[in-house]
Amino acid sequence: MKSFFGPGAIAALLTAADIAAAQQTPFSISSTDDIKKTASILSWDLLQYYKGNESGQTPGLLPGPPPVGPYYWWEAGAMFGTLIDYWFLTGDSTYNDLTIAGIQFQTGTDDDFQPRNETLSLGNDDQGFWGMTAMLAAEENFPNPPEGRPGWLALAQAVFNTQASPDRHDDTCNGGLRWQIPPTNKGYPYKNSIANGCFFNIGARLARYTGNTTYSDWAEKTWNWWAGVGFLDAETYAIYDGADVAVNCTDINKAEFSYNSAVWLLGAAYMWNHTKSDVWKTRVNKLVDHGLETFFPKGIAYEPTCEPWGTCSTDMLSFKGYVHRWYATTTQVAPFTAAKILPVLKKSATAAIKQCTGGALGRQCGFKWDSGKYDGVTGVGQEMNVLGAVSSLLIGGSKGPVTNSTGGTSQGNPNAGANPNSFEIPVQPITAGDKAGASIVTIIVVCSTVSLLGWMSLGA
Ligand SMILES: *[C@@H]1O[C@H](CO)[C@@H](O)[C@H](O)[C@H]1NC(C)=O
Ligand SMILES: *[C@@H]1O[C@H](CO)[C@@H](O)[C@H](O)[C@H]1NC(C)=O
Ligand SMILES: *[C@@H]1O[C@H](CO)[C@@H](O)[C@H](O)[C@H]1NC(C)=O
Ligand SMILES: *[C@@H]1O[C@H](CO)[C@@H](O)[C@H](O)[C@H]1NC(C)=O
Ligand SMILES: *[C@@H]1O[C@H](CO)[C@@H](O)[C@H](O)[C@H]1NC(C)=O
Ligand SMILES: *[C@@H]1O[C@H](CO)[C@@H](O)[C@H](O)[C@H]1NC(C)=O
Fold this sequence. Notes:
It is globular and about 60 Å long. The protein is 48% helix and 1% strand. The protein has a single domain (24-402), classed as Glycosyltransferase (Alpha/alpha barrel). It is built from 15 helices and two strands. It is mainly α. α6 packs parallel to α8 (193-210). The site of one 2-acetamido-2-deoxy-beta-D-glucopyranose has 6 residues, from α12.
């Protein structure tokens, strides 16, 4: 019989999280080889959440959306972008086939990333994340899809064209994209920085990749509208979340999220790379200064609007990885930012791996990087963040994003995405015999819509 004060009793008082927090991370980033090895394990751990390559599962989806599982449709699109960067930076092609299959399965009937299954969570930002992933595949010369499938460039052009359509740009608040696409979605009356930031980002990158000025004109116009409506603070360069069209966007929600900083910074950096203009250089510098101060207050990635209270949603728990990846690419396309950004990304990645001590294998990552301790909760966002931070450390050794005149091989289609409303299910002529059935279907659809909406959270 053990004495009451014996070691067993003390161990029993410690929670699993305490034990994990006391452990040492198995990861190292002290050499290129260590970085690659660490990234390889992190990518494997991340892929444990993905079942889309297994029989009976849907390619391109993470478990979800709520209440079925934690992840909305867009996050898988973001994950494939993380995996494309992982391949590009490390050379490890283990996940390429699964990535190609997953992206291609989710392109929707019109190959514009508006699959009808996802209409309930189809925001311009959700579609935009898949579009940015396709754009990245073109820029990094990711293996092209099989014959007969749309090229990465064509997919990015499709997203751009649907979002540039007059259907998406009404006069409320003087222009700009709404958050949601279908008017029936919760969040349709909101115009915000992330939806417009994804559109701006894709436009800037298509302009550089193709040289077509239609894209840069839209990027300029989007920036001007967004700054003009007050979502960009002209003094501080803080980026605010968004506002309601009912009051002409005068009730600005001043919450700052790190992915807004990163998506606008990267787009502005591409605009500078494309134009070499001092106007864009100044904007890039101001975004970097405000972004580093706000989202890396101790030199470590931090989500100020939710992290201090532990209120980050599943979406928000994935932002740090985009910030690391997009800030890293910024240093390539706008090299004058490298001296400021790179040391911070390194310090932040060092903190990131330190807290990866959770789970059965003692290496799952949490979200509170600046605490130095595993916080007891892991998931796709937490793993993907650290993978993005670690693989981005190899940015200096990689060649930058290509264009179609510097080695890009992706097949484009400037006319892709001609139907901005392709997410709508076509109305079939109803015969008398179908009517009873149709009303039952309507009731079921309405009920499940309402219960899904109850679960939707603000964010991407
Ligand atoms: C799915 O991908 C993971 C990660 O590469 C792999 O471990 C697993 O075996 C794959 N499953 C199937 C059925 O191919
Ligand atoms: C849409 O949902 C159906 C039913 O679950 C599934 O069979 C199909 O593969 C899904 N399509 C996409 C693109 O996810
Ligand atoms: C690059 O794209 C532009 C616009 O689509 C096209 O006019 C041009 O021919 C392309 N250049 C090459 C080298 O493919
Ligand atoms: C709505 O806001 C825009 C942009 O801030 C402004 O230019 C416009 O005059 C406003 N319209 C009305 C009716 O107040
Ligand atoms: C533009 O971006 C490319 C790709 O990363 C980079 O090699 C090039 O140096 C950049 N241009 C300038 C003027 O810095
Ligand atoms: C430029 O892009 C626009 C918008 O997608 C398209 O309509 C136009 O045909 C493109 N021009 C060229 C030369 O590819």
